[in-house]
Protein: Futalosine hydrolase
Amino acid sequence: MKTLVVAATKAELTFLYQHFSLQEGDFIEDKNFDVLITGVGMVATAFSLGKHLSPKYNLVLNLGIAGSFDRLVELGKVVNITEDTFAELGAEDGENFIAITDLGFGENTYKSNSTINTGLPKVSGVTVNRVSGNDKNIKNLIKRLNPTTESMEGAAILYACHYEKINCLQIRSISNYVEPRNKDNWKIGLAIKNLNDWAISFLTDMN
Ligand SMILES: O=C(O)c1cccc(C(=O)CC[C@H]2O[C@@H](n3cnc4c(=O)[nH]cnc43)[C@H](O)[C@@H]2O)c1
Structure:
Protein backbone atom coordinates (compact mmCIF):
# COMPACT_ATOMS: atom_id res chain seq x y z
CA MET A 1 0.00 0.00 0.00
CA LYS A 2 1.17 3.45 -0.87
CA THR A 3 0.51 7.16 -0.29
CA LEU A 4 -0.53 9.43 -3.16
CA VAL A 5 0.63 13.02 -2.69
CA VAL A 6 -1.66 15.39 -4.62
CA ALA A 7 -1.00 19.07 -5.34
CA ALA A 8 -2.37 21.57 -7.85
CA THR A 9 1.01 22.93 -8.94
CA LYS A 10 4.55 21.62 -8.88
CA ALA A 11 5.69 24.95 -7.40
CA GLU A 12 3.81 24.10 -4.21
CA LEU A 13 6.02 21.00 -3.79
CA THR A 14 9.35 22.60 -4.77
CA PHE A 15 11.32 21.51 -1.68
CA LEU A 16 9.70 18.09 -1.55
CA TYR A 17 10.89 17.40 -5.11
CA GLN A 18 14.38 18.56 -4.12
CA HIS A 19 14.52 16.67 -0.83
CA PHE A 20 13.42 13.33 -2.28
CA SER A 21 15.25 13.89 -5.62
CA LEU A 22 12.01 13.29 -7.52
CA GLN A 23 11.99 13.09 -11.30
CA GLU A 24 10.29 15.75 -13.41
CA GLY A 25 6.69 15.16 -14.46
CA ASP A 26 3.10 15.40 -13.27
CA PHE A 27 2.81 11.78 -12.12
CA ILE A 28 5.85 10.38 -10.38
CA GLU A 29 6.09 6.90 -8.96
CA ASP A 30 8.63 6.70 -6.16
CA LYS A 31 9.52 3.94 -3.73
CA ASN A 32 7.32 4.91 -0.80
CA PHE A 33 4.87 7.37 -2.32
CA ASP A 34 3.65 8.67 -5.67
CA VAL A 35 3.13 12.34 -6.57
CA LEU A 36 0.30 13.71 -8.73
CA ILE A 37 0.22 17.30 -9.98
CA THR A 38 -3.35 17.93 -11.06
CA GLY A 39 -3.47 21.52 -12.28
CA VAL A 40 -5.46 24.27 -10.56
CA GLY A 41 -9.18 23.90 -9.86
CA MET A 42 -11.81 21.25 -9.25
CA VAL A 43 -12.24 20.07 -12.85
CA ALA A 44 -8.52 19.53 -13.45
CA THR A 45 -8.28 17.79 -10.07
CA ALA A 46 -11.23 15.48 -10.68
CA PHE A 47 -9.98 14.59 -14.17
CA SER A 48 -6.48 13.85 -12.94
CA LEU A 49 -7.67 11.80 -9.94
CA GLY A 50 -10.01 9.92 -12.29
CA LYS A 51 -6.95 8.80 -14.20
CA HIS A 52 -4.63 7.99 -11.29
CA LEU A 53 -6.56 7.24 -8.07
CA SER A 54 -6.72 3.51 -7.42
CA PRO A 55 -7.14 1.00 -4.56
CA LYS A 56 -3.36 0.58 -4.39
CA TYR A 57 -3.31 3.78 -2.30
CA ASN A 58 -4.23 3.67 1.38
CA LEU A 59 -3.75 7.42 1.88
CA VAL A 60 -4.17 10.50 -0.28
CA LEU A 61 -2.17 13.44 1.06
CA ASN A 62 -3.41 16.68 -0.49
CA LEU A 63 -0.85 19.46 -0.09
CA GLY A 64 -1.23 23.08 -1.13
CA ILE A 65 -1.50 26.70 -0.19
CA ALA A 66 -4.78 28.36 0.79
CA GLY A 67 -6.39 31.61 1.75
CA SER A 68 -7.61 32.24 5.31
CA PHE A 69 -10.81 34.06 6.28
CA ASP A 70 -9.53 34.19 9.86
CA ARG A 71 -6.98 36.96 10.53
CA LEU A 72 -5.93 35.23 13.76
CA VAL A 73 -4.34 32.47 11.66
CA GLU A 74 -0.91 33.80 10.76
CA LEU A 75 0.38 33.70 7.19
CA GLY A 76 2.58 30.63 6.71
CA LYS A 77 0.63 28.57 9.28
CA VAL A 78 0.10 24.94 8.27
CA VAL A 79 -3.37 23.55 8.99
CA ASN A 80 -5.28 20.27 8.63
CA ILE A 81 -8.53 20.90 6.73
CA THR A 82 -10.75 18.11 7.99
CA GLU A 83 -14.00 19.33 6.42
CA ASP A 84 -14.47 21.10 3.10
CA THR A 85 -17.55 22.45 1.27
CA PHE A 86 -18.22 23.08 -2.42
CA ALA A 87 -19.28 26.66 -1.70
CA GLU A 88 -20.71 27.57 -5.12
CA LEU A 89 -22.67 24.38 -5.74
CA GLY A 90 -26.32 25.45 -5.77
CA ALA A 91 -28.60 28.13 -7.19
CA GLU A 92 -28.89 31.89 -6.88
CA ASP A 93 -32.35 33.06 -5.91
CA GLY A 94 -32.16 36.84 -6.15
CA GLU A 95 -29.93 37.90 -3.26
CA ASN A 96 -30.19 34.46 -1.64
CA PHE A 97 -28.24 31.29 -2.28
CA ILE A 98 -29.81 27.84 -2.24
CA ALA A 99 -27.21 25.15 -1.49
CA ILE A 100 -27.30 21.92 -3.47
CA THR A 101 -28.31 20.09 -0.28
CA ASP A 102 -31.46 22.23 -0.07
CA LEU A 103 -32.15 21.68 -3.77
CA GLY A 104 -32.16 17.96 -3.03
CA PHE A 105 -29.23 17.09 -5.28
CA GLY A 106 -26.85 15.61 -2.72
CA GLU A 107 -24.11 16.67 -0.35
CA ASN A 108 -21.80 19.67 -0.56
CA THR A 109 -19.56 18.97 2.44
CA TYR A 110 -16.97 16.19 2.63
CA LYS A 111 -14.82 15.17 5.59
CA SER A 112 -11.34 13.81 5.97
CA ASN A 113 -11.74 10.25 7.23
CA SER A 114 -8.13 9.87 8.35
CA THR A 115 -7.38 9.23 12.02
CA ILE A 116 -3.67 10.06 11.58
CA ASN A 117 -2.49 12.54 14.20
CA THR A 118 -0.82 15.30 12.19
CA GLY A 119 -0.16 17.57 15.17
CA LEU A 120 -1.73 20.41 13.18
CA PRO A 121 -4.78 22.55 14.03
CA LYS A 122 -7.97 21.18 12.48
CA VAL A 123 -10.09 23.67 10.52
CA SER A 124 -12.92 23.68 8.01
CA GLY A 125 -12.66 25.09 4.49
CA VAL A 126 -14.51 25.99 1.32
CA THR A 127 -13.55 25.13 -2.24
CA VAL A 128 -14.32 27.59 -5.04
CA ASN A 129 -13.80 28.04 -8.78
CA ARG A 130 -13.23 31.76 -8.35
CA VAL A 131 -10.85 33.05 -5.64
CA SER A 132 -12.98 35.34 -3.44
CA GLY A 133 -12.00 38.98 -3.78
CA ASN A 134 -15.19 40.89 -3.25
CA ASP A 135 -16.15 42.16 0.24
CA LYS A 136 -19.84 41.38 -0.15
CA ASN A 137 -19.24 37.83 -1.38
CA ILE A 138 -16.67 37.23 1.36
CA LYS A 139 -19.12 38.37 4.08
CA ASN A 140 -21.83 36.13 2.61
CA LEU A 141 -19.51 33.12 2.56
CA ILE A 142 -18.52 33.67 6.20
CA LYS A 143 -22.17 34.11 7.24
CA ARG A 144 -23.30 31.01 5.34
CA LEU A 145 -20.45 28.56 6.06
CA ASN A 146 -18.05 30.14 8.59
CA PRO A 147 -14.97 28.61 6.92
CA THR A 148 -11.38 29.14 8.00
CA THR A 149 -9.76 28.40 4.62
CA GLU A 150 -10.44 28.73 0.92
CA SER A 151 -8.86 26.65 -1.84
CA MET A 152 -9.69 25.65 -5.40
CA GLU A 153 -9.31 21.86 -5.07
CA GLY A 154 -9.80 20.60 -1.50
CA ALA A 155 -13.43 19.41 -1.55
CA ALA A 156 -12.91 17.67 -4.92
CA ILE A 157 -10.15 15.52 -3.43
CA LEU A 158 -12.16 14.68 -0.30
CA TYR A 159 -15.09 13.82 -2.59
CA ALA A 160 -13.06 11.37 -4.68
CA CYS A 161 -11.55 9.74 -1.59
CA HIS A 162 -14.97 9.46 0.06
CA TYR A 163 -16.42 7.54 -2.88
CA GLU A 164 -13.26 5.44 -3.39
CA LYS A 165 -13.10 4.75 0.38
CA ILE A 166 -9.48 5.92 0.63
CA ASN A 167 -8.17 7.80 3.67
CA CYS A 168 -7.43 11.42 2.92
CA LEU A 169 -5.59 14.28 4.59
CA GLN A 170 -5.81 17.85 3.29
CA ILE A 171 -2.85 19.84 4.59
CA ARG A 172 -2.46 23.44 3.49
CA SER A 173 -0.36 26.41 4.45
CA ILE A 174 -1.89 29.87 4.55
CA SER A 175 -0.47 32.10 1.80
CA ASN A 176 -2.94 34.98 2.03
CA TYR A 177 -6.03 36.35 3.69
CA VAL A 178 -9.27 36.17 1.73
CA GLU A 179 -9.76 39.83 0.83
CA PRO A 180 -10.04 42.07 -2.25
CA ARG A 181 -7.16 40.84 -4.41
CA ASN A 182 -3.72 42.26 -3.58
CA LYS A 183 -1.01 39.79 -4.52
CA ASP A 184 1.61 42.03 -2.80
CA ASN A 185 0.14 40.86 0.54
CA TRP A 186 0.54 37.16 -0.31
CA LYS A 187 3.33 35.22 1.40
CA ILE A 188 3.56 32.37 -1.09
CA GLY A 189 7.26 31.63 -0.49
CA LEU A 190 6.81 31.34 3.28
CA ALA A 191 3.69 29.20 2.89
CA ILE A 192 5.39 26.82 0.45
CA LYS A 193 8.48 26.51 2.68
CA ASN A 194 6.45 25.70 5.81
CA LEU A 195 4.19 23.31 3.91
CA ASN A 196 7.15 21.43 2.42
CA ASP A 197 8.97 21.28 5.79
CA TRP A 198 5.90 19.66 7.34
CA ALA A 199 5.39 17.26 4.38
CA ILE A 200 9.05 16.15 4.26
CA SER A 201 9.00 15.37 7.96
CA PHE A 202 5.62 13.57 7.71
CA LEU A 203 6.64 11.44 4.72
CA THR A 204 10.03 10.64 6.26
CA ASP A 205 8.49 9.54 9.58
CA MET A 206 5.83 7.49 7.80
CA ASN A 207 8.35 5.24 6.04
O1 LIG B 1 2.54 33.12 -7.87
C1 LIG B 1 3.24 32.19 -7.45
O2 LIG B 1 4.46 32.26 -7.23
C2 LIG B 1 2.57 30.91 -7.12
C3 LIG B 1 3.36 29.83 -6.72
C4 LIG B 1 2.74 28.66 -6.38
C5 LIG B 1 1.35 28.57 -6.44
C6 LIG B 1 0.61 29.66 -6.81
C7 LIG B 1 -0.85 29.61 -6.84
O3 LIG B 1 -1.52 30.58 -7.10
C8 LIG B 1 -1.43 28.32 -6.51
C9 LIG B 1 -2.91 28.35 -6.72
C10 LIG B 1 -3.51 27.61 -5.59
O4 LIG B 1 -3.56 28.36 -4.45
C11 LIG B 1 -4.69 28.02 -3.70
N1 LIG B 1 -5.11 29.26 -3.07
C12 LIG B 1 -4.26 30.08 -2.41
N2 LIG B 1 -4.93 31.11 -1.88
C13 LIG B 1 -6.23 30.95 -2.23
C14 LIG B 1 -7.39 31.73 -1.95
O5 LIG B 1 -7.38 32.77 -1.27
N3 LIG B 1 -8.56 31.28 -2.46
C15 LIG B 1 -8.61 30.14 -3.20
N4 LIG B 1 -7.53 29.39 -3.48
C16 LIG B 1 -6.34 29.78 -2.99
C17 LIG B 1 -5.65 27.34 -4.67
O6 LIG B 1 -5.99 26.09 -4.17
C18 LIG B 1 -4.88 27.22 -5.98
O7 LIG B 1 -4.73 25.92 -6.43
C19 LIG B 1 1.20 30.84 -7.16
The chain has a mean pLDDT of 97. Residues 188-206 form the longest helix (19 residues).
